[in-house]
Amino acid sequence: QKEVEQDPGPLSVPEGAIVSLNCTYSNSAFQYFMWYRQYSRKGPELLMYTYSSGNKEDGRFTAQVDKSSKYISLFIRDSQPSDSATYLCAHFWQGAQKLVFGQGTRLTINP
Amino acid sequence: DAGITQSPRHKVTETGTPVTLRCHQTENHRYMYWYRQDPGHGLRLIHYSYGVKDTDKGEVSDGYSVSRSKTEDFLLTLESATSSQTSVYFCAIRGLAGEDTGELFFGEGSRLTVL
Question: What ranges do the domains of chain B cover?
Answer without folding.
Answer: 4-114
